[in-house]
């Protein structure tokens, strides 16, 4: 997002805040990545990007900003390789995964950092999806597919939105806890998520303000004529 667009977005957020304390702004993002780490016994993986799409977030501005809703999805059928086989598998494919507010979701704390930057601590965050697993070598177990992913991040997470940079971050997410056949402990996939290419969609309150502004300009022009 350019500086000019940043100033326009900041001005729009200011107008939204003036419209009332409950007025929200919904943002859509053109892309993003989850930098994942994996822990499962001796099998580890760090710093591997997982692409994201279908990203939106609704944010209430103000002295105590709120992240009221969001919907983040992974790009389908992305895989990664473990450092060593776990449960006989070393190839994991996340067929699909979506992050949404969990049951009882709430904003636990909020900070207006200034300059169009806001931080909000939220929870719980729900993850749902499907994964598959296979072995890259010879003699391993048969591949498995369509295994459900279902997990609630009950530990509070920190979300940050930056109007000028056009980014949104959700840090410390447990993206998946995958039950691997033959293992007593699951494979845990954690991620720091960064979403880019922010565009804002005016809500009814801000649309009304824009309409009033256009009407005012039209009236002023009519007087000059």
Describe this structure in words.
Residues 1-21 and 203-224 have low confidence and may be disordered. The longest helix has 21 residues, at 204-224. The chain has an eight-stranded antiparallel beta barrel. The protein has helices at residues 3-19, 204-224; strands at residues 24-40, 43-60, 66-74, 78-86, 89-114, 117-134, 144-153, 157-162, 167-178, 187-201. With 225 residues, the chain is α+β, with helices and mostly antiparallel strands. The chain has one domain. The chain is elongated.
Element string (H = helix, E = strand): HEEEEEEEEEEH
**General shape:** elongated
Mean pLDDT: 77
Which strands sit side by side, in order, in the main sheet? 1-2-3-5-6-8-9-10
Poorly predicted ranges (pLDDT <50, ≥5 residues)? 1-21, 203-224
Taken as a percent bin, the fraction of beta residues is over 45%
Q: What's the alpha carbon Rg, rounded to whole Å?
A: 22 Å
Approximate helicity band = 10-25%
What is the overall number of helices?
2
Number of strands: 10
Main sheet characteristics: 8 strands, antiparallel, barrel
How far apart, in Å, are the first and last alpha carbons? 38 Å
- The figure for the number of domains is 1
Class based on secondary structure composition and strand pairing: alpha+beta
Describe, in short, the structure shown:
This protein is of the alpha+beta class and 225 residues long. The chain is 17% helix and 62% strand. The protein has one domain.
